[in-house]
Structures are given as structure tokens and as C-alpha cells.
UniProtKB/TrEMBL annotation:
Region called Disordered, residue ranges: 185-223
Ranges for domain DUF305: 52-193
Gene3D superfamilies: 1.20.1260.10
Keyword vocabulary terms for this entry: Signal
Full protein name: DUF305 domain-containing protein
Signal peptide limits: 1-25
Source species of the chain: Nocardiopsis mangrovi
Length: 223
């Protein structure tokens, strides 16, 4: 009789062990499933505010004009300015696409209601664009650099406003990229003009405002 009970116990023991293992495995799977549940990313949950929308709507035409200015360099500029213009065009073209995609994501138009104010910071007038288009050689190089410095300074101001007031992560990230890249290019352009890149930006503007003679001397000195 004793032997029978012992034998039954021995037969039941593996079954109990297997059942316990299955229960543990089931609990483990449930825990893994819980941990694997997707969580919303900050990008997905973030909402654009009015500063983000204005930044994108204003930066698109601003970049488009920089691309237009840079495309003129292909048949008019010297090697150094041509290289710079190509880099600006290559960088800002894709940024226009990113800004447009963000506005589409937000359900916003590429231009604000009432149209775009072309008097925004750093934008060239029609007369300035015509003057640049008519220039060639060193004259083009000098004028392009002077106008693009002003253009970049306007973009940096717009980007800094986005850094202060924007909330959408990708837009804020792009604003920082614009500040970093364009401040570096401003220093490069001032160097090409023969100016001191480390001097305050206001010095560059005041030098240009003193007349064409100072600007031409700087331009010839940079090439």
C-alpha cells in the first residue's frame, strides 16, 4: 500500500512541476507584453503653437530667396563664392521641404492669411535682386556676400524667436540648426570680404553703409 502511494506521488510530481512552469511562463509573457506596449513619443504628442507655424511660414520664402540668390552664382561667381553658394543651396532646399511637411502635418497653409509680408528680416527687395542678377565676377561676389550676410542675419533672428517661443520639437531643432549653420557662414562671408569675422556684426553693417568704396575694397581683398 505504501509503495502504491509513493508511486502515485512520483507520477504526479512532474505534472505539478510542468503546470507551475507553464503558469510562470504565462505570467512572464504578460509582463513582456506590457513592457512592449507602444508609448507615444514626445514628437507624436507635441502640438505646434502659433510661433512654430509663423516660423515655418516665414522661413520657407526666406529660404526660397536664398536659394534663388545662390543659383545666380553658378554663372557669375568666383570659385570661393560659388562653393559657398552651392552649400547654402544644398542645405536650404531640403529645409524648405521639411518646413512644408511640418505645416502639412499641422494642417496649416504655407502662407498666413492675408499673404506673406516680404518686408521680413533680411529679405531682399526686387531692386536688390535685380542688381545682383546684373552683376558679374568680383562685383557679383562682393554684392552677393554683403546681401547674403544681411539675409542670414534675418534668418538667425527668426530662428532665435522660434527657440524662445516655439514648442514643436522638430521646429525648435531646425531653428537651432539654422542659428548654428548661418552664424558660421556669416563669419565665413565676412572673412571673404576681408573683414574681421570676430568683430561685432554691427561693424559689418556700418562698414557697408559708409559707401561702395569701403565695400569694394573689402571685396577685392577677399579674392
Amino acid at each position: 500500500m505504501f509503495d502504491t502511494r509513493v508511486t502515485r506521488a512520483r507520477l504526479l510530481l512532474p505534472i505539478v512541476v510542468l503546470a507551475g512552469s507553464a503558469a510562470l511562463a504565462s505570467c512572464g509573457t504578460a509582463a513582456e507584453d506590457d513592457s512592449a506596449a507602444p508609448s507615444s513619443s514626445p514628437e507624436a504628442s507635441a502640438e505646434a503653437n502659433s510661433a512654430d507655424v509663423m516660423f515655418a511660414q516665414m522661413m520657407i520664402p526666406h529660404h526660397e530667396q536664398a536659394v534663388e540668390m545662390s543659383s545666380l552664382a553658378e554663372s557669375r561667381a568666383g570659385d570661393e563664392v560659388l562653393d559657398l553658394a552651392q552649400r547654402i543651396e544644398d542645405a536650404q532646399g531640403p529645409e524648405i521641404e521639411r518646413l512644408t511637411a511640418m505645416l502639412e502635418t499641422w494642417g496649416e497653409p504655407t502662407e498666413p492669411e492675408g499673404g506673406m509680408d516680404h518686408g521680413m528680416d533680411g529679405m531682399m527687395s526686387d531692386d536688390q535682386m535685380a542688381e545682383l542678377e546684373a552683376a558679374e565676377g568680383e562685383e557679383f561676389d562682393t554684392l552677393y556676400l554683403e546681401l547674403m550676410i544681411e539675409h542670414h542675419e534675418g534668418a538667425v533672428e527668426m530662428a532665435q524667436t522660434e527657440l524662445e517661443s516655439g514648442s514643436y520639437p522638430e521646429a525648435v531643432e531646425m531653428a537651432q540648426e539654422i542659428v548654428d549653420a548661418q552664424e558660421t557662414e556669416i563669419e565665413e562671408m565676412r572673412g571673404l570680404l576681408g573683414e574681421d569675422p570676430s568683430a561685432p556684426a554691427e561693424d559689418s553693417g556700418s562698414d557697408a553703409d559708409t559707401g561702395a568704396e569701403g565695400g569694394e575694397e573689402g571685396g577685392h581683398g577677399g579674392h
